[in-house]
Structure prediction request, 855 residues.
Amino acid sequence: MGIKSFSRARAIHVMLVYTGGCNGCDIEIVNSILSPRFDAEQYKVFLTWNPREADVLVVTGPVTHLNRKPLEAIYEAIPEPKLVVAAGSCALMGGVYKNIHGDIPSEEIEGPVENIIPVAAKVPGCAVRPQDVLAGVVTLLPTLLDAD
Amino acid sequence: MFESTVLYSILAVAVTVVICFLISTLLPGIERKYIHARIQQRIGPPVTSPGIMAPIKFLYKKNIKPSSPVPGLYKILPIVCFLVVLCLLIALTPYAFAIPALASLVAVVGLLKVEEICYVLMGALSKSIMSVRMPFPDRVKGAAHLNTTRSFIEDISARRSLRMITYGSFPMYLALFAPVTQARSIFLQDIVAYQQAHGPFLFTVAGGIAAIVFFIGYMIILNEYPFSIIKAKCDVIEGPYMEYASKYRSIVFITRGFLMFTLGVLFSVLFIGIPPTIFSPTILINIFVVLVFVFMMGIFSAFTPVFTNRQLLPTIIGATLLGILAIVLGLL
Amino acid sequence: MEEKVPRSNIIETEIPLGTVHPAALEPYRVRLFVEDEIVQEAEITIGVNHRGIERIMEGLPVEKGNALTEKICGICSNSHVWNSCRTAEIGLDIEIPERARYIRVIMGELERLHSHFLYLAHGCETVAHETFSMRVFYLREIVMELLAMIGGNRVQYGCPIIGGVRPRCDLDEAKLLRLKTDMDKIEEGLTGFADRFLADSILISRITGVGVLPTKQAIRLAVTGPTLRATGVARDLRTTMYEYDDFDFNVVTQPDGDVKSNLLMRVLESFESIKIIRQAIANIPEGKVVNRDWEMFDTDMIESYIEVPRGTLYHSYYLESGRIRHCIIRTPSMANIAAMQYACIGDHITDAQLSIVQCDPCFTCTDRAIEIIRR
Prediction:
């Protein structure tokens, strides 16, 4: 393991972008990082609110119409290598808001997140459990470490 | 003979600076892991993560052109900051005493001022995505005040750092000049010599008061909570540093730890009379002083909210009055 | 105190914040109009979260619609299902078993606890007091585990159904015992936190007099919930709800309407919630938890108001051959948005987000089609 991978494994900056949905995933994720019970920092995962600092972008929510451009802009602002974790069933497949209509498309929902930015890991759950989010970020590690 | 002394001095300075630099990279980790996390009853990150691994990681990230009207200048500023801190540390080593222009309080104050002016420039030049540039249709029909000028959050930050230059750093500079009243000289050499002859300035009444003022000034210069108005998370997010990515952000990270170390050393030179040199066991005292400062700052910042002007002004005025008191006591 | 009025004539610059911002966990845009860092006017733009829930609910079978209301909000999810079921129960004249009523109250109060703890933690985080925020999050975790124990999930519990509560949410002896012991733990932790919080003179001086909402203005803006009670008006819908008939609790008020009053309000109200839960555990009757003995028929418009952690929640719909028609949902934050815009006038920018947070915003709840009717 080179110094590059070594250092990357020891400092992962996560940024959270919340794109609609019900707020549940969002609070669970912030909770997983802020609460001393889960304390993501012990796994070397740091929360940041500056896209220039982030390595991993955690996206929750089904990406509503007004959220599409901010999400794209924030994704653009993150320097390479960057990875996206889609957390929660809304981010994975549009959730109940997109799918309850059956085949009729929803005009409000632009998601899932995959349609807008490339997604590297998907964390299912409604709402996601903090443990699962941490596991999701950690499963990304091999991809992140080997990126140039 | 002269050449060999110069060569020896340069070598000694280099070794001292490198050792100090290596220790300084641990300081943010110590603050985060052993103080903040301990107080918050959690495990916290590994000691090496915030100060060493994060900068190395940023080195390996691809750089992006920062969104700034003058990207070149904006990118140079963290390097300037780092060099300023480096100069400051070199000025404090006993080998620099041979150059009176550098090893004097005027130079120290000047270097710290450069550091502060860099914050103003950084804030003014950074135009991040998080406020005005966020693509959101908020200036539409029916919205209030469509013709006002729009300001980036970093502009507020720049204005605040300007305010910090005008009055925020008073306590620091008053505390720096308190030892002068005893030693009757602004040259570090004389201050150190005086204290080695008459005992540390810290253990006099004036010195004790000045040390408190120095600590407040230390936190203000480092922009640590509660004085972190230029990078308060609840409005300006990261303030002047918003647009730095990859190696420039890495320099920003390193500079912070290095400045923590250098200011601690500055205290031990001015108040205890021990300049840092690797060839003397007294460097352990320097490191001890640095750690004490980091611990005190960590405890203080973990238990305080961010201040606004309403709390900041009285605190700074109080600290300034204390500083004046220390100087007056010193003169008597 | 005088009513706050925006001073549009001295605005110098506009500072837009959002839609992603550390102090605002939800996406919304706020434009602060400032004069030398003092906010003179604020404009909050919502609609970022608009998912068209009422539109989706149109024509859904009522049971499915109820399940969907839970997805309106991740913080007060139980309240939405509860009120949606309650609406149908009022319209269809369904008798609810006593035991189910008690379990609904327990769930409602647990949710109030977790919402208030989230508020306290978020408030402390916004004044950048990370330590206090973490301590509250630590307490909140106990409540979250209790909710997961009863409902089976940490956020969306799906507890109420038409006619009672879901049978899996029934409380057996072991669960009641755990509820009881954890209430003691929470009370102890919260008392410790409140003592520490009030003894912290730096923090108290920082939040006193910030984001004041005058009483008169609060009433005029039709503010609801704890935000209203923190301005000194004792108005709580729980006193009129039949579910709470058997319970003895006080309506807490605070005098000032500033951030300190609001934070204290939440702490004191949490103690009342603990009291209610304890009474419910002690007196919970035996029997069925769900009444399946009802028939569907077409109804006129049915309305239901309940008190949720953030204020008054309103649901209404028509039932037509078992399907929902013309659903309208009005959430407490809807009324409180105006309060947020006024509360931050005259404060520093650093306090602006705090003043918004003090009104306990939940824009995910609120984002829906709005028609303002001027009378």
